[in-house]
Write a structure and sequence with these properties.
By secondary structure, this protein is α/β, with parallel strands linked by helices. The chain is built from 24 helices and 19 strands. The structure holds flavin mononucleotide, iron/sulfur cluster (SF4) (3 copies) and FE2/S2 (inorganic) cluster (FES).
Length: 592
């Protein structure tokens, strides 16, 4: 059987030489006159931490951290002799056993790759590859065989909810815009993806740009829009490049433009660049930014579906939402609802990160528990440490604790526990994380990204940050905790846009789930995770050999002692920089 070599061409793997690996593979095949082996540079496989990744079909051999020098062995052993190159095969982080077939890897076993079905599988720059994998079939079916009302009915019946954060029913949004008889309407693809650590939309655009175009085509047909706009941050150059090429090729081949699929329907797409401000992901701010104005939100209603880009009805949909659309049209509503929960059907892509063994992009059926994601797909906590918290929903999400691990992942269950689904960020924390510092960290992000238009968000978050900072410095008072809660709740209900309305979620959820840690900081002036510098004391133990290395790195001369005798630290002088601890070769310095 002929073999196929898939090489990841996502941003992560490209930055670690995957293009060179591809070139070397092609060169080697040519020099050895081996024919019938297809070499494809694909989009992201999701397991970026282990990149560059090379997968060989049909055996499904999954090679990780491949270097250009490994190419000779891949050709000689795998391609020619049908053997595996053991040393670059994936090893399970727990059992340390080699896993040969990627389908047997815990990271992939529980995944249900529907949105990501083409990512890591097809060449994103090849229209042929896309067409061979059912590409544009759904658009053809919708546009030439279905009425726009029926398309919308399908999306309503599917129960698809927006994957950009809010979880608003997509079909309902389309219905509002379709009923408006304005001459010009717009479909906007929100590819701003501002959540730090999230890269699902980028991966989709890099790995399967035609699916995004197809989703926009169907959305455009459904609401009667002839124009599509993709708002994408300029710091996603590869996604921009692949999407631009895909738009051009689609246009040349009659998938964009006039008389699409032999009908009178016309649709074209333009790319608009964002400068990478988080608030510009909010739909009204995004629209202002596209109009060349300041990217500031305005109050809703009117909703963009009624009055959006240049005051015309505009449907703003997230990248992942749009890619679900062709899958639903082609496979049917029942197929879509086969996975997920009653109120949150389908799958969701998460960016799994933090103190977890398997970091990466995972697509799972909604309803799966946090425990399954963290301990089965993610294979638990790094270094055998204890799980402490998981933060879902990006910077404005909430932190959940051990008691919440069996919570099913869906829009409503997460919200009922004080967290949110958001766009799919999932950060896992262990015993070494201080939850007060975590809340402060996320708040610092939202504070930096606040547009400053309204007082509760601009001033309120500043005051929240100051209180948290005081607490981490050991200057907090008990009454500060009540103040944190009161202020957080006030900011939530009085802010103009979603940024301010959700900015205090990390504070409220950590207060709710990790109140003891706040108490430790405030009353005992102690940071149990030993993160808050001002609350730590560095102590030299009996393990000290008197090597004097620490005295030389201490910039404030806080360490004293004779050669070959136990040294001591003057806690008054110590500024808690930690330099001595990282210098001591005998692990004689500890934090208390
Ligand atoms: C501060 C803020 C940032 C947002 N960032 C994004 C984003 O990066 N991408 C996105 O699709 N939606 C983002 N949203 C949600 C959008 O405003 C909008 O609801 C969404 O794009 C609608 O598409 P959907 O219904 O398909 O989810 C953000 C919302 C807020 C309040
Ligand atoms: S809530 Fe914050 S980001 Fe939103 S409009 Fe007000 S100041 Fe701007
Ligand atoms: S570096 Fe370690 S062993 Fe050496 S003097 Fe300092 S504490 Fe003692
Ligand atoms: S923590 Fe820094 S300041 Fe304190 S004793 Fe060690 S090196 Fe000196
Ligand atoms: S970029 Fe290669 S696996 Fe994600």
């Amino acid at each position: 059987m002929s073999k196929k070599i898939l090489i990841c061409g996502g941003t992560g793997c490209l930055s670690s030489k995957s293009r060179l690996i591809k070139e070397n593979l092609e060169k080697e095949l040519k020099e050895r006159k081996i024919e019938g082996v297809e070499v494809v540079l694909t989009g992201c496989f999701g397991f970026c931490e282990k990149g560059p990744i090379v997968k060989i079909l049909p055996a499904n051999n999954f090679y990780i951290e491949v270097k250009p020098e490994d190419v000779k062995d891949i050709i000689e052993l795998d391609i020619i002799k049908d053997e595996k190159v053991e040393r670059i095969l994936y090893k399970d982080p727990i059992t340390k056993e080699v896993v040969t077939d990627y389908k047997k890897m815990n990271f992939y076993q529980k995944q249900e790759r529907r949105v990501l079905k083409n990512c890591g599988f097809i060449n994103p720059e090849s229209l042929d590859d896309f067409l061979k994998n059912d590409g544009y079939k759904a658009a053809k079916k919708a546009i030439s065989e279905m009425s726009s009302e029926f398309v919308i009915k399908n999306i309503v019946d599917s129960g698809l909810r927006g994957r950009g954060g809010g979880g608003f029913p997509t079909g309902v949004k389309w219905e509002i815009a379709s009923k408006n008889d304005a001459k010009q309407k717009y479909i906007v693809c929100n590819a701003d993806e501002g959540d730090p650590g999230a890269f699902m939309d980028r991966s989709i655009l890099e790995g399967d740009p035609h699916s995004v175009i197809e989703g926009m085509l169907i959305a455009g047909y459904a609401i009667g829009a002839t124009k599509g706009l993709v708002y994408i941050r300029a710091e996603y150059p590869l996604a921009v490049e692949r999407l631009s090429k895909a738009i051009e090729v689609a246009r040349k081949n009659g998938y964009l433009g006039e008389n699409l699929f032999g009908t009178h329907f016309a649709f074209d797409i333009e790319i608009k660049f964002g400068a990478g401000a988080f608030v510009c992901g909010e739909e009204t701010a995004l629209i202002h930014s596209m109009e060349g104005r300041r990217g500031e939100p305005t109050s809703k209603p009117p909703y963009p579906a009624e009055k959006g880009f240049w005051n015309m009805p505009t449907v703003v949909n997230n990248v992942e939402t749009l890619v679900n659309v062709p899958r639903i049209i082609l496979n049917g509503v029942d197929w879509f609802r086969e996975v997920g929960t009653e109120k949150s059907p389908g799958t969701k892509v998460f960016a799994l990160s933090g103190k977890i063994n398997n970091v990466g992009l995972v697509e799972v059926p909604m309803g799966i528990s946090l425990r399954e994601i963290i301990f089965e797909i993610g294979e638990g906590i790094k270094g055998g440490k204890k799980f402490k918290a998981v933060q879902t929903g990006g910077p404005s999400g909430g932190c959940l604790n051990e008691d919440d691990l069996d919570t099913p992942i869906d829009f409503d269950s997460l919200a009922s526990k004080g967290a949110i689904m958001g766009s799919g960020g999932m950060v896992v924390m262990d015993e070494d994380d201080c939850m007060v510092s975590v809340a402060k960290f996320f708040l610092e992000f939202t504070l930096d990204e606040s547009c400053g238009k309204c007082t509760p968000c601009r001033i309120g978050n500043t005051r929240l940050y100051e209180i948290l900072d005081r607490i981490t410095q050991g200057k907090g008072k008990l009454k500060d905790l009540a103040l944190l809660k009161e202020l957080s709740e006030a900011i939530k209900v009085t802010s103009l846009c979603g940024l301010g309305q959700t900015s205090s979620n990390p504070v409220l959820s950590t207060l709710d789930k990790f109140y003891n840690e706040y108490i430790d900081h405030v009353i005992e002036k102690r940071c149990t995770a030993k993160v808050c510098q001002k609350l730590i004391t560095y102590v030299i133990t009996d393990a000290c050999r008197g090597c004097t290395a620490c005295t030389r790195v201490c910039a404030v001369k806080a360490i004293d002692g004779k050669v070959r005798e136990k040294h001591t630290i003057d806690t008054e002088k110590c500024v808690r920089c930690g330099a001595c601890m990282s210098t001591c070769r005998f692990n004689a310095i500890i934090k208390l």
